[in-house]
Please model this.
Amino acid sequence: MKIIKTRRNFIKDTSIVTGLGLVGSQHLSARSLINKPVAKKLGVALVGLGYYATHKIRPGLLETEFCELKGIVTGTKAKEGEWMEKYGVEKKNIYNYQNFDKIAENPDIDIVYIVLPNGMHSEYIIRAARAGKHVICEKPFDINAKRSAKAVDECHKLGKLLQIGYRCQYDPYHQEFMRIGKSKEMGDIKEIRSAHSFYGSKTGNWRYTNKALAGGGPLMDVGVYSIQAARYGSGEEPIAVSATCYNTNPKLMAGMEETIIFSMEFPSGAVASISSSYSARANFVEVSAEKGNYGLRPAFGYGGAQGFIGKDMMDFPVKNQQAVQMDAFARNILDGTPVLASGEEGLQDMKIVDALYKSAKKNGKRIKL
Ligand code: NAD
Model:
């Protein structure tokens, strides 16, 4: 099997991005993203020190060029000492959920990164923006489009940049996947298949047990990656969706799906068929186009993607996705450039999620967007 590097114009820059004309995405000139030296790295405060903040974002911040860990917001006293001692966070940069708004007075903090349960996202985005900070918020944006739209509006009004933590959009393999779709190198896209699932809804984590915080099951947690890939892979926005939900464990996951299977129709006639589950193992996106198949498998994991075009393998440098995502956002702030994984991007996904749940409630009825 040949190893190929298909992206001839690949720029060896940690923050390269391409736009696809998606909602809220815009073309960014590569020139504006060439690593210019910065006098001072932007200070990041993490809000919510759970699994992702501690084990993925904090290590990612050790690899960033344009931003660094400066502050934390936590409701757990014991974590304050631990983060001061282990990670060098200064006491004056530590907040709890009650005094969080005082962060407005802290010049060390430029970016607030929200890593709380989904249902708390918009509230904290709005509080952070009102405190005068730019905001990164983890995916999914929130638990519905209405709340997300309010946060987008508030950030716009206050002139604060907002990025949704869609780390894959900053990964070279995903960018190549976008480029192939956009350039039509493989002809028109006919079908996109994707699944993102993992096995294990057994713990007491809010994801599996608390609908107000989770908003739903695997669609909210991991299915959104497949929605993203279908959108940026096709470069189109869906015009209709249809979904069916299943739950073999309704006691644990009350009112939420354990598995969802859905389709998305695009204006060109391309169709996406997607599944997401807490009781399956899957992690891929594949495209059938006029001239053949290509895709990413694995696609969405932390360990980096692998990609193929027909029988050839893609070969790009493996990037720390969290680091390149945060650095790209820091450069957007420093250079005044648009955010790739913007609030509007995340909001569009929430509109699709709302339509999918509406369809599932109506036994898979086709819902127009
Ligand atoms: P987690 O449960 O490990 O952490 C959540 C944190 O929020 C904890 O520190 C908890 O103490 C705090 N918290 C504050 N108020 C809370 C409340 N009322 N109820 C519950 N917890 C509360 O979760 P996580 O896996 O770190 O996920 C956090 C966010 O990050 C989610 O939105 C998730 O979708 C996202 N995430 C993104 C990725 C990615 O690859 N981009 C990966 C994992 C998680």
Observations:
- The domain at 168-317+342-368 is CATH 3.30.360.10 (Dihydrodipicolinate Reductase; domain 2).
